[in-house]
Amino acid sequence: MSQREWVEKDYYAELGVSKNATADEIRKAYRKLASDNHPDKNPGNAAAEEKFKRVGEANSVIGDPAKRKEYDEFRAQVSSGGFGGFAPPGGGRFTTSGGDFDIGDLFGGAAGAGGAGGSGGFSDLFGGLFTQGRGGGAPGAGRGRAQRPQGGQDVETSLTLSFREAALGETVQIRLSSASPCLTCHGSGARPGTSPKVCSTCHGAGVTQRSQGAFGFAEPCTDCGGTGSKIDDPCPDCAGSGVTDRARTINVKVPAGVQDGQRIRLSGQGEAGFRGAPSGDLYVTVTVSKDPVFDRDGADLLVELPVSYPELVRGAQVSVPTLTGRVTVKVPAGSRDGQILRVRGRGIARKSGTGDLKVTLRVATPPAGMAEAELAAYDEALRAAGFDPRSGWAGSA
C-alpha cells in the first residue's frame, strides 16, 4: 500500500462509522460486516470476498488505538498541506509548502557517521507503516513486525457499597453483559474439531511488505485481515470471531479501606479479544453510601458523641461504637464542646496501617418539653455556684 493509497482510503467509511466513533462502535461494525461478507457464507461471491478483505484492512488500522491515532494524524497532515509534494523524488527529498527538506529529517534526523539514525521527528507518527529498505530487497511476507489479533476492550462498571463494607472490605458479585470468549469454540473462532491455519500469504506475520526505492512499505495482509491466520470452517455461533455477547457473573474482591470514587482494576476481566487475543481489563468504580454514625478522614474513623453539659464538666465514661465492636471512651472533666478524643488503632485498616478513632464531643441541649420547674432549678443552681455563661465574653457590658 503506497502512501497515497493509505491517505485516500477512508477506513471509517469502509466500516460505515463516523470519524468520532467509539472503539466499541468500530468493533461491532467490523464484526457484523466480517460476518455478513465472510467467504464461507458467500461461496463464489467475489464482491463479498473483496468487501471482507477491505473491512479487515480497515479494522486492522482504526480498530487499533495506536494505529488509528497514526492514521488520523497522517491524514490531517496531508489535508492541511503538511506533505505538499507527497511522493519523494529520487533524490530522497520532499517538497512542502515550506520548501524542500531531506527525507532523513522526516524520519527522525540525519544518520550519524556510523550510520545510526536519530529518533523523534515523524518516525513516531508513521510507526510500523514504513521500514527502511535493505539492499533494495524485494517485497516479502516474512519481513516486518508481526501482527497480533486485536485485544479486547476495557470495560467500565460501578458498584455501590455501604460505609462498613468499604471500610472492612468485601467480596461482591456483579453481573455483566459483554463480549466474552465463545463457549462453543473456546475463543479460537474455528468450528469445534478444527483449528485456524497460518495464513499462506503473510506466513503468520499479519503484514505484507513491498519496496519502493529505498523504503519498504508494510501493510495489513488482506487475505487474513491482519490476524496472521485463516479459518476454513468458522464457528457457527461466533462467525469466526471467537467472541459472543453473553451475561456473566464476576467476583469482585473489594480491599479494606476503599474510598468513594476509587477504581478497582480486574486484569483480563474485560471484553474478550478477537480469536483468542488477550481480554481487556475491567474497571469498577466504587460508590460508598453515607453512614448515619461514621465518617472518615483517610484511615481515621470519625464519630460525633452527644454528651450532656454535666458530663463535660464532671467527666464520664461513655461507650462508643467502632467498625468491629464498641470501646469505652473517657471524657475528661472540664472538657468542652467540639473537643476531639483519640483512640489509637481503632480506625480503618489499610495497607499503609490502621488509623485512629476520633471522637468529637457535642453538647446535647435539653428537649423543649422539659419541665419548666426542672429548668428553673437547674438555672438557679448554676447561678448559686457563680456560673455566668458570658463571663469573659468580649460582648459583655
Task: Summarize the structure in words.
It is a single chain. By secondary structure, this protein is of the alpha+beta class. Among the domains are: 1-87 and 121-127, Helix Hairpins (Orthogonal Bundle), CATH 1.10.287; 294-384, Urease metallochaperone UreE, N-terminal domain (HSP40/DNAj peptide-binding domain). Helices cover 23% and strands 28% of the residues. The protein is built from ten helices and 20 strands. The strands form eight sheets. The chain has a four-stranded mixed β-sheet. Strands 3-8-7 form a three-stranded antiparallel β-sheet. A hairpin with a 2-residue loop joins β7 and β8 (215-220). α3 runs antiparallel to α4. The protein is elongated. It starts with a helix and ends in a 13-residue tail after the last helix. Residues 82-147 have low confidence and may be disordered.
CATH superfamily of one domain, called what? DnaJ domain
Trace the largest sheet across and list its strands. Answer: 13-14-20-17
- Structural class given helices, strands, pairing? alpha+beta
Residue share in β-strands: 25-35%
Largest sheet: 4 strands, mixed
GO molecular function, one term: heat shock protein binding
Family: Belongs to the DnaJ family.
InterPro entries: DnaJ (IPR012724), DnaJ_C (IPR002939), DnaJ_domain (IPR001623), HSP40/DnaJ_pept-bd (IPR008971), HSP_DnaJ_Cys-rich_dom (IPR001305), HSP_DnaJ_Cys-rich_dom_sf (IPR036410), J_dom_sf (IPR036869)
Organism: Dietzia natronolimnaea
